[in-house]
TrEMBL record:
Stored PANTHER family: ATP-DEPENDENT (S)-NAD(P)H-HYDRATE DEHYDRATASE, ATP-DEPENDENT (S)-NAD(P)H-HYDRATE DEHYDRATASE FAMILY MEMBER
Official protein name in the record: Bifunctional NAD(P)H-hydrate repair enzyme
Subunit structure: Homotetramer.
PROSITE patterns according to UniProt: YJEF_C_2 (PS01050), YJEF_C_3 (PS51383), YJEF_N (PS51385)
HAMAP family reported for this sequence: NADHX_dehydratase (MF_01965), NADHX_epimerase (MF_01966)
Domain called YjeF C-terminal: residue spans: 229-502
Residues that, per the record, bind (6S)-NADPHX: 61-65, 132-138, 161, 264, 327, 378, 443
Record-annotated YjeF N-terminal domain positions: 13-219
InterPro entries to which the protein is assigned, alphabetical: Carbohydrate_kinase_pred_CS (IPR017953), CARKD (IPR000631), Nnr (IPR030677), Ribokinase-like (IPR029056), YjeF_N_dom (IPR004443), YjeF_N_dom_sf (IPR036652)
Enzyme Commission number(s) from the entry: 4.2.1.136, 5.1.99.6
Cofactor, free-text remark: Binds 1 potassium ion per subunit.
UniProt similarity note: Belongs to the NnrD/CARKD family. In the C-terminal section; belongs to the NnrD/CARKD family.
Pfam families: Carb_kinase, YjeF_N
Length: 511
């Protein structure tokens, strides 16, 4: 299983820190020093020419981190000022110690009693150290007003670990104030909130800083959320053996296209043919077969009885995996064809686009899905399957519940595409870019996953590898021609380079 790169809930943070403190062993003050040191190093990489830093320090350990950062910057001879935002709150022990250390070495400290008195230096970088990841209630009142003031300033803002006011998982009906950071440097692992599109305005660009929490607790402590990296994904990719041939690398059946939407079939075919399947068979309406012959000559073509839409498949015995959905339409004839298909096919399958819309609108089809089926909805398609969501965290819970209930893998497409498993785990993809938000990109993904299934990958590996490779191909396109010019076909064309990159990475790791 893919167990690297966990995302822990913020409620677990104290346990991770406590284990590290007791078993390294290290004092809590030294752990704070370590975290603030790596933060300061990253801060100066992003702002190497800035000499003025204003730290906004709260009363908890996040504020303590801020005081250490201030002291480290002061030691480097930089212009540093700390605005103490404590109100009547008692400082945490480590925060109190580091506040005293900063003041004792001559640091400039200003206690803010009124939000209007917060007057940052001109041309300064603001460091948000007001609240950390343990926040469990909306920020209102004095500190809420401070945050509103910060958000009205033009200064660049860098958050320590998490933007103040943002909760690590569920913001729910959060009517409180949240810092809008330009950068967030987070400790040890990304926070779940970073993966949700509704939070991008607060998090900005984020990086993970390794503060060397104890490896045993990171390895053994359970998590339900993970993020994908090249190391994790490339290690799952099956490499063909020396004596492999087209018969051993799988025969993929793609059921795609209808009279107005044959482009979707072509794009899915190009995704599959570039992703390692030994044979690709395209099942298309009989009047439209020439489109595939001319566009994807590598594909075998079998025709449907219907002239212009999918109505059923007679023989599935030759195939190792089936992909269905791109451009097939939602006619009653096609719905009945899917019903017949799912009644007899219990092997590997990926369903996308109109196949998902038919699942949502035809009672009983969901119950026919084979265990381990892969579904690849975009948010609106998932809403039709599982109902409306209040926010992104609610959608994540619905996604996990849906995958467990139906024993399927659900690939929810988006900025950080999520793969939900029947076991209740969720994997967040870290490749891809906004240029890929174009018609046809999802069809290419369907072809990729279907080909990976046919060539021997498990449903989880096919989904994880397919999503990561699809996003990486999009990133390669953007490197070459920018975001605006990306086409779905360009993504398929870059897949060869993606597989080469992964194979090269694997070989380098094996040396």
């Amino acid at each position: 299983m893919l167990k690297n790169n966990k995302i822990f809930k913020t409620s677990d943070l104290q346990k991770l820190d406590k284990y590290t403190i007791e078993n390294e062993p290290v004092t809590s003050l030294d752990l704070m020093e370590r975290a603030a040191t790596v933060f300061t190093e990253k801060l100066l990489i992003f702002f190497p020419n800035n000499h003025i830093f204003n730290i906004l320090a709260g009363f908890g350990n996040n504020g303590g981190d801020g005081y250490v950062v201030a002291r480290l910057l002061l030691k480097k001879g930089l212009n540093v000022k700390v605005f103490g935002l404590h109100g009547n709150s008692v400082l945490s022990p480590d925060c109190a110690v580091n506040r005293k250390r900063f003041i004792d070495m001559g640091g400039c400290y200003i206690e803010v009693k009124n939000p209007d008195n917060l007057q940052p230096d001109e041309n300064s970088v603001l460091v948000d150290a007001i609240f950390g990841a343990g926040l469990n209630r909306p920020v209102t009142g004095f500190l809420g007003n401070v945050i509103h003031r910060i958000n009205c300033l033009s200064h660049p803002v860098v958050a320590i670990d998490i933007p103040s006011g943002l909760m690590g998982e569920d913001n729910g009906e959060n009517n409180g104030a949240i810092v809008k950071a330009d950068y967030t440097f987070t400790f040890q692992f990304p926070k779940l909130a970073f993966m949700f599109p509704e939070n991008v305005v607060y998090v900005g660009h984020w990086d993970v800083l390794d503060i060397r929490l104890h490896p045993a607790i990171l390895r053994e402590y359970p998590a339900a959320y993970y993020y994908l990296t090249e190391e994790v994904v490339a290690s799952r990719l099956l490499i063909p053996e020396k004596f492999s041939h087209k018969g051993t690398l799988g025969n993929t059946l793609l059921i795609a296209g209808s009279y107005p939407m044959m482009g979707a079939a072509v794009l899915a075919a190009k995704g599959a043919i570039r992703s390692g399947t030994g044979l690709l068979s395209m099942h298309v309406p009989c009047k439209l077969k020439e489109v595939i012959h001319l566009s994807v000559p590598e594909a075998l073509v079998e025709v449907d009885r219907n002239e212009f839409c999918f109505s059923g498949v007679d023989n599935l015995s030759r195939f190792q995996a089936v992909g269905i959905g791109p451009g097939i339409g939602t006619s009653p004839v096609t719905a009945e064809g899917i019903r017949q298909l799912l009644s007899v096919w219990q092997g590997k399958v990926v369903l996308d686009a109109d196949a998902l819309n038919l699942l949502a609108s035809n009672s009983g089809l969901l119950e026919l899905l084979p265990k381990g089926a892969v579904l690849t909805p975009h948010p609106k398609e998932f809403e039709r399957l599982a109902g409306k969501s209040v926010n992104d965290f609610d959608r994540l819970n619905k996604l996990s519940t849906f995958a467990r209930l139906h024993q399927v893998y659900v690939v929810l497409k988006g900025a950080h595409t999520i793969i939900a498993t029947p076991e209740g785990e969720c994997y967040f993809n870290m490749t891809g870019n906004p240029g890929m938000a174009k018609g046809g990109a999802g069809d290419v993904l369907t072809g990729i996953i279907a080909a990976l299934l046919a060539s021997g990958h498990s449903p989880l590996d096919a989904a994880v590898i397919g999503v990561y490779a699809h996003g990486l191909a999009g990133d390669l396109v953007v490197e070459e021609q920018g975001m605006r010019g990306v086409r779905a076909g360009d993504i398929a064309d870059k897949l060869g380079l993606v597989w080469k990159k992964m194979e090269t990475y694997n070989m380098a790791k094996q040396r």
